[in-house]
Amino acid sequence: MWSGCCTSRLSWLSFKYIILSFSLSFLSKNVSDKQGEASGPTACEMGSVQCNTLFGAWTVGSAGQCLYHEAGIRIGQKGIKRVLMQVHWNNPEMRDDYSDSSGMTLHYTPKLRPNSAVMLMVGQWYLEIPPGRERHAESAVCSKEDTHRLLTGPIKIVRALNHMHYLGREESLEIIRNEKRIAYVTNETTYSYDRPKFVTISPPLEIQPGDEIKTTCVFKSKNKKKTTFSGRGTSDEMCLGFMVVFPAENLLSRTCATWRSLSLTKLYRDLNPYGCNITNFFNLSHPDTRPLLEKLENNCKPFSICLEECKEVVKEVRKHPCLSGDVGKYIVHRAAQMFNGDFPRFLSLLQSCDVEMLKDKQVQRLTNNNESSGSVSPRRHLELIVSFLCVTLILLI
Ligand SMILES: *[C@@H]1O[C@H](CO)[C@@H](O)[C@H](O)[C@H]1NC(C)=O
Ligand SMILES: *[C@@H]1O[C@H](CO)[C@@H](O)[C@H](O)[C@H]1NC(C)=O
Ligand SMILES: *[C@@H]1O[C@H](CO)[C@@H](O)[C@H](O)[C@H]1NC(C)=O
Ligand SMILES: *[C@@H]1O[C@H](CO)[C@@H](O)[C@H](O)[C@H]1NC(C)=O
Ligand SMILES: *[C@@H]1O[C@H](CO)[C@@H](O)[C@H](O)[C@H]1NC(C)=O
Question: From the UniProt record, which GO molecular function terms apply (predicted)?
Answer without folding.
Answer: copper ion binding; dopamine beta-monooxygenase activity
